[in-house]
Design the sequence.
């Protein structure tokens, strides 16, 4: 998803700055992802990002990026290799755990949880809309959190997990 330009530094955290922020001390412009959505203290999610978003992700305090989107879903989508290179250049750890919506397996969930646990926190996750990252997060926590809490947390971030309730209640992977 394309970001917008803001001036730094500002009294507002990078995720809530707007074009109307005025700061006569600003020396550089930073492109911020338009949609950072926290899921817990370790992970936030977002729709598609681009390599140019990495400075803003760093400025927001993230230490890692995880991609849950396979390459080639749509024409013009940024390549994982380009996002990885930009993340690493910005000093971020990077992981790629691609999944296809509606086909998330127990192995996918286990790999996602293991990867998140190993990445330096906080982690910035993304896919096309942020939904797959949110699904993976909820399913990865289904054994240690109740389904209602996971569904409510996801709803606060703008994602509807009611269709996953039965799977969340069985404890997923």
Sequence:
């Amino acid at each position: 998803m394309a970001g917008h330009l803001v001036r730094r530094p500002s009294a507002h955290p990078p995720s809530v700055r707007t074009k109307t922020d005025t700061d006569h001390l600003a020396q550089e412009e930073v492109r911020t992802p338009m949609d950072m959505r926290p899921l817990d203290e370790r992970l936030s999610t977002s729709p598609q990002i681009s390599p140019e978003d990495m400075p803003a992700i760093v400025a927001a305090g993230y230490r890692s990026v995880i991609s849950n989107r396979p390459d080639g879903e749509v024409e013009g989508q940024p390549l994982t290799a380009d996002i990885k290179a930009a993340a690493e250049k910005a000093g971020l750890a990077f992981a790629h755990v691609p999944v296809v919506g509606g086909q998330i397996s127990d192995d996918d969930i286990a790999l996602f949880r293991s990867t998140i646990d190993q990445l330096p926190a906080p982690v910035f996750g993304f896919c096309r809309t942020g939904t797959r990252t949110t699904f993976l997060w909820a399913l990865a926590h289904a054994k240690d959190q109740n389904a209602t809490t996971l569904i409510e947390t996801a709803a606060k971030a703008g994602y509807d997990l009611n269709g996953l309730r039965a799977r969340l209640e069985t404890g997923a992977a």
About this structure: Residues 106-118 form the longest helix (13 residues). The longest strand covers residues 4-8.
